[in-house]
């Protein structure tokens, strides 16, 4: 979103504080906050993910701007006090997440408040329709090399909250079939990930195991592993996304996952050393190497003697050296077009 400040300049006169930035990439958000030039108390930046939250704070400091930065599972968890909500919508964001933001913004705006979308597409043919569907009317800037801006005013009447979610079923081998709720912006939206299936078909989970679902997303891996561990086992779900952790909690309860625990963390903070029999990790395939490293480094100390670690990847040449550095040895099993890397303590 390299032209976002130029685009914003064409509509900045419409903005009235207090202002909420709804998601958006950290650098564009920081530059927009700087362009607003409002007191810190008048600007809030909301993210779903703790990594993104930390990055927004870093970028704000680098550009010399200040705002309250918060992490929430849903935008509508915030109070309905904002006179303007700004959504810097990057092109690569999921369609369903974009629509979710358009609709959730309604519920944090004060009546008469402004919802403003900044799209980096030169000719965007979606946001006007979404704005009109939710707010009734929509204004827009002409198509330009900077992108397009769309704005709508929130009517006085309240509307029913519409939850964007998809429910799916999954089972592994002869295990029970389980049902999962998924929401936009979280890993495994709308389906059970094939990489997760490949890992669970290979990884060993025994009755009574204490399992760590690392980067849990909607919690499907942990719930299915919990079914293998049985009533004497337990599953801890960890993710940096508060929306993901909330989903994992919802799905674990619905599927009677044994002794479930939930941790929102950017690394491995809040986890007890030597407390797990099995760790299952499925890092994002598009993640930078440092993100993948977070799914490996430090995990050895979390395992009990004889504990097992499994990670699924499409880039084994990048992952295997990390496993060797941490565990000293490993094995690789190819399954369903993925590499499942296994290590033991």
Regions with pLDDT < 50 over 5+ consecutive residues? none
Largest sheet, described in full? 7 strands, mixed
Beta-strand percentage?
Answer: 25-35%
Q: For the largest sheet, list the strands in their spatial order.
A: 3-2-1-4-5-7-6
Tertiary shape: elongated
First CA to last CA: what distance? 45 Å
The number of E-state strands comes to: 16
User: Mean pLDDT, rounded to whole units?
Assistant: 94
- By CATH's scheme, which homologous superfamily of the largest domain applies? Vaccinia Virus protein VP39
Q: From N to C, what is the helix and strand string?
A: HEHEHEEHEHEEEEHEHEHEEHEHEE
What's the architecture of the largest domain in CATH terms? 3-Layer(aba) Sandwich
Helix content: 25-40%
Structurally, the number of domains stands at 2
Can you tell me the CATH topology of the largest domain? Rossmann fold
Total helices: the number is 10
Plain-language structure description:
The protein is an alpha/beta fold. Helices cover 29% and strands 28% of the residues. It folds into 2 domains: 4-153, Vaccinia Virus protein VP39 (Rossmann fold, 3-Layer(aba) Sandwich); 166-344, Rossmann fold (3-Layer(aba) Sandwich). The chain has helices spanning 4-9, 26-36, 50-63, 95-105, 127-135, 194-202, 220-229, 242-254, 289-294, 316-327; strands at 19-22, 43-47, 68-71, 82-89, 109-119, 139-140, 148-153, 166-170, 178-182, 210-214, 234-239, 260-264, 276-281, 303-313, 331-335, 338-344. Strands 3-2-1-4-5-7-6 form a 7-stranded mixed beta sheet, sandwiched between helices. The protein has a 7-stranded mixed beta sheet with strand order 12-11-10-13-14-16-15, with helices on both faces. Strand 11 (234-239), helix 8 (242-254) and strand 12 form a beta-alpha-beta unit. The longest helix is centred in the first third of the chain and has 14 residues, at 50-63. The mean pLDDT is 94.
